[in-house]
Amino acid sequence: MIPRYSRPEMAQIWEPETRFRIWFEIEAHATDALAALGEVPPEAAARVWEKGKDAVFDIDRIAEIEAVTRHDVIAFLTHLAEIVGSEARFVHQGMTSSDVLDTCLAVQLSRAADLLIADVDQLLAALKRRAFEFKLTPCIGRSHGIHAEPTTFGVKLAQAHAEFQRARARLVLARQEIATCAISGAVGTFANIDPRVEEHVARKMGLSPEPVSTQVIPRDRHAMFFAVLAVVASSVERLATEIRHLQRTEVLEAEEYFAPGQKGSSAMPHKRNPVLTENLTGLARLVRSAAIPAMENVALWHERDISHSSVERGIAPDATVHLDFALARLTGVIDRLVVYPENMMRNLEKLGGLIHSQRVLLALTQKGMSREDAYAAVQRNAMPVWRGEGNFLDLLRQDKDVAALLPPAELASLFDLGYHTRHVDTIFRRVFG
């Protein structure tokens, strides 16, 4: 994890202290369940909690033991025995390392998902507020980067809101997918541990029992989780890219807030660069980079191997931390986005009325002209305007084929900007309810 792109609450999920605390809780809950089944002395289970619940696990000591054992879970259990005493021999009865590691990872990813869902909620609130603020603010819609037809800036933001509604729903499903517990022992057959132990631990840790764990939780669940994170990151990038385009000097319809004292360039004092949204584009690439390794982790050998382990130690903290940071940063960008309606109108008018060409085309067909002839008539008057040779409406009025079907007043009415915004309320009802 890079501190520059880490927020404390998400980063804490992946700290060693948090991991060892979760390991302890898994082991202690399992010991409780074994005691309830009569397989462990109740006083031993109580002793584990008494000594461990407020213990500060010594990370350096665990690392020292692991340097000898070359096994992280054994190192932890050895250190736990130093804390608990002789009753520690009843800890980890019938369990295998993956029971602890996989259940812990499920807890961590579930907690991370909760934070990401909350992040999306904050972003949705910002998008909704700004969408209604600019609900009827006209701007040009572009296809292929070229002026197409009018839309509103509010509709642009409503589209992003709808997209992040879907992102939220996917994160909820991803959390459900990943929140499973495995306490099934070697090769997952429960040969040395009662399935009721797994049920107890799952309930205490806020998880569901994994139906078939084969010693590890199947990695298709993790692949699904990281794929969802990748899609959410792509949505972040889509909106960030839109803002970057709108901030270009020759467009300047919106821009990131530029704070007093902020500097845009070490060489050029005039610069105001879209640094936040460029950063979001880069962070999205990092989050997406976790998806393919997660999918490659699905094909483990037989009941288990550990080829997935090194991958997940990297992608789990990095992907969740980066996406958490990105969502929070995007929320800040939207909250403080500077919008220029006057520039939007200037850009709308830049092509001398060409943005109304489809209305003229349709009007001519409704008057009886074939679509092919109507297209040709509109296009031959549009092309000179592209070259800066006149105004579209004036040229159409001078075209005898057009004038024969569309009187001047009727032709002028086809250039009404309000025509393009008359269904904005319908769009907003669909998005916001």
Polypeptide structure, described:
- The chain is mainly alpha-helical and 433 residues long.
- It is built from 19 helices and 6 strands.
- The chain has helices at 8-13, 16-36, 42-52, 59-69, 72-84, 97-133, 153-178, 195-205, 220-246, 275-288, 291-296, 307-335, 341-348, 357-366, 371-386, 392-398, 400-403, 408-413, 424-432; strands at residues 138-143, 146-152, 180-181, 208-209, 254-255, 338-339.
- Helix 4 (59-69) packs across helix 5 (72-84), helix 6 packs antiparallel against helix 7 (153-178) and helix 10 (275-288) packs antiparallel against helix 12.
* Helical coverage, percent range: 55-70%
Sheet with most strands: strand arrangement: 1-2
Structural class: mainly alpha
How much of the sequence is in beta strands? Answer: under 5%
Largest sheet at a glance?
A: 2 strands, antiparallel
Low-confidence stretches: none
Number of separate helices: 19
CA gyration radius, whole angstroms: 30 Å
Q: What series of H and E elements makes up the topology?
A: HHHHHHEEHEHEHEHHHEHHHHHHH
Chain-wise SSE layout:
Elements: H1 8-13, H2 16-36, H3 42-52, H4 59-69, H5 72-84, H6 97-133, E1 138-143, E2 146-152, H7 153-178, E3 180-181, H8 195-205, E4 208-209, H9 220-246, E5 254-255, H10 275-288, H11 291-296, H12 307-335, E6 338-339, H13 341-348, H14 357-366, H15 371-386, H16 392-398, H17 400-403, H18 408-413, H19 424-432
